[in-house]
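For reference, the entry.
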Amino acid sequence: GQGDAYLDMWLGAEVDGRKNIDTILAETSELFEGKAAWLLSQVLPPQTPLFIANSMPVRDVEFFWKPNNLGIQPFFNRGANGIDGTLSTALGIAHNQQSSVMLTGDLALLHDTNGFLIRNKFIGHLTIVLINNNGGGIFEMLPISEFEPPFEELFATPQDIDFALLCQTYGVKHELISSWEELRHKLNPLPNTGIRVLEIRTDRKESAKWRKENL
């Protein structure tokens, strides 16, 4: 009937959109934030527990995750909690389990860095893929982003944190990732023990522009 035809048209459009996104991301060498989620969906070891932070990471997973049969186990906090407890939740998921991964932005990680205090009691491994765009990238998608001031000070809230020094304070391993091939190499196989941060520095305005032009 008419409903089936509409459904077929909708599904066809989704398939075409999926193919276009996959083609574009496969050819993208610049450090666009959404490609992190796309790459994670394809290179992680099967059954890897993956904690996804709120704000843009969970949306990027929804937009760019490439469906497959790797059986990645997704976890995320939903509801009114926002970015509260992001790191602590991820460490709880990884503790005494197989090697796990967290995908997070800089503000969500900064909001819960005291979670690193559990490091001496933590058993297992957590890799933190840190999208550092120095602020709240999700707000770049809103009309308020065109108004400066007050956008940077009141909405984006850049913190200008040196994550290498922050990790050093807690005795956590830190690596700055400069290419997608480097990230791919670091994600499979995963280490068996410890906590490490793989930092990807991105431009949130350029990433927002990419999303608006391609989604």
